[in-house]
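Hey, I was hoping to borrow your eyes for a little while. A protein chain has come my way and I'm curious about its shape. Take your time with it, there's no hurry, and the full record follows here:
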Amino acid sequence: LHPQGKYDYQAQWQSSLQGVALNWPAPYRKAAAQKQPLVIRAQGNQKSSRLSLNWQNGLKAVGELDHASSRFRRLWVDSQDEPVLDPLSSAMNVSLKFDRLDADAWLAWWQGISQKTGDAALSSAGHWLPEQTNLQVQAKQLIWAGQPWDQSSLQLHQQGETGQLSLLANQVAGTLAWQPQRPLAIELSRLLWRTADEEKEKAQQPQS
């Protein structure tokens, strides 16, 4: 503690999370009996805090929280490498890699959360995040619209209500862009859309 109400602090919280069940889609579903240690560290002063998270399921995060605005100035989330804050960035940066990611399951889960909590509550909860988002997701196989998309890479850049999503996989390549009061812009240079019958025939073909 310092004169005139100033202070510095350090804190750490850790738990095995045994007894806590997470009904999230794979690969982050967790049974209550399962141990999955989580460590959260915080340090800062009366103006800001630096928070870091290390979860045994592979997720790591580090962020800088501004106390006056109650919003993260910078936030990094990564499932592979140790995230590092860039002092020149003012964004949320997320980099995730998966062997298999079922986007349909995650969308259904999110819709369920929205119905239980309400869109207004979710929108309010998002106010503590940076306004700019950079998201990169890579998956050896992505399941979307009931179809597999192999060697997928998604890159999202969003600032407020304006954004662009780049798609790249063996079966698709292109971009989707949106901004207020404008129609969704879709540009695809490649798209292999398969019907349920085509997928069934492919599954029945003998493997050479």
